[in-house]
Amino acid sequence: MPAQGTPSSKGQEIQRTFDRITGYYDLMNRLMTLGRHAAWCREVAAGAEVPPGGSMLDIATGTGVIALAARERYPNSTVHAVDFSERMLAAAAGKPGASAIRWQQADANDLPFGDESFDAVTHGYLLRNVENVEHVLEEQYRVLRPGGRVVMLETCPPRGPLRHPVELGVRVVIPLLGQVVARDRQSYAYLQESTLGFMTPQEVSEILRRVGFSSVAWRKRFLGTHMIISAEKR
Ligand SMILES: C[S@@+](CC[C@H](N)C(=O)[O-])C[C@H]1O[C@@H](n2cnc3c(N)ncnc32)[C@H](O)[C@@H]1O
């Protein structure tokens, strides 16, 4: 199904970046997170608390790790998964268990779903890629039913005594892995910049509250370089 609207020029550039790295995405993710990414995706799926017979939407699903974890955890619910990269969606749809998920190409800025369509919305590493975080969270608020939950995994700029060694590690390790494994230093330099340059959990929480979400909670992972944030629509 075609995406609604056309992404902005920055969006199209990001779309091309993810189209380019699809073949290496899962392996690179495992290496960059020392194998922790899948466990965080299961945590995100668990936090969605989808009721039996309910429905959830995973946005920026990429190769579908959160959507597949949700499908396993909530076998009696409907799982929709969207991304604007066709190649990422194709990789996701080819995985075992994927036929039970409704995959669709869509831009997080303009979700092709009616108001109050879902009991939960999840996403991993979406917000650091978008131009207007508040607008993207408003879209999620719109498609959630009252009482519905949003749960997200994001990178987080490291703070405290470990800040400098961790920053140095991210600056060196990610582009180096990109060069050696994917032979694409440029794409991974973008990932390294967006990892270190993204917001703190307090800043994301502030925007969530402004959009109307309540019960905002967050926890950090992986030496403070990752965070899982959840909130509820009143
Ligand atoms: C780093 S990957 C994360 C994939 C997956 N959520 C995970 O945790 O492995 C980011 C994904 O976000 C998608 N993406 C970025 N901006 C988007 C947007 N505005 N709308 C839809 N997808 C977007 C990219 O195509 C890419 O597949």
Automatic annotation (TrEMBL):
Keyword set, alphabetical order: Menaquinone biosynthesis, Methyltransferase, S-adenosyl-L-methionine, Transferase
Entries under InterPro entries matching the protein: SAM-dependent_MTases_sf, UbiE/COQ5_MeTrFase
Entry keyword annotation includes Transferase: yes
Catalysed reaction, written as an equation: a 2-demethylmenaquinol + S-adenosyl-L-methionine = a menaquinol + S-adenosyl-L-homocysteine + H(+)
CDD domains membership: AdoMet_MTases
Enzyme class: transferase
Keyword DNA damage set for record: no
SUPFAM superfamilies per record: S-adenosyl-L-methionine-dependent methyltransferases
Lineage top rank: taxon: Bacteria
PROSITE patterns listed in its UniProt record: SAM_MT_UBIE
EC number: 2.1.1.163
Binding site for S-adenosyl-L-methionine: T63, D83, D107, A108
One of the GO biological process terms: menaquinone biosynthetic process
Pfam families in alphabetical order: Ubie_methyltran
Gene Ontology terms for molecular function: demethylmenaquinone methyltransferase activity
Stretches that traverse the bilayer: none
Pathway given in the UniProt record: Quinol/quinone metabolism; menaquinone biosynthesis; menaquinol from 1,4-dihydroxy-2-naphthoate: step 2/2
Protein family membership: Belongs to the class I-like SAM-binding methyltransferase superfamily. MenG/UbiE family.
Role: Methyltransferase required for the conversion of demethylmenaquinol (DMKH2) to menaquinol (MKH2).
Annotated PANTHER family: 2-METHOXY-6-POLYPRENYL-1,4-BENZOQUINOL METHYLASE, MITOCHONDRIAL, METHYLTRANSFERASE
Protein's name in the database: Demethylmenaquinone methyltransferase
Organism: Nonomuraea pusilla
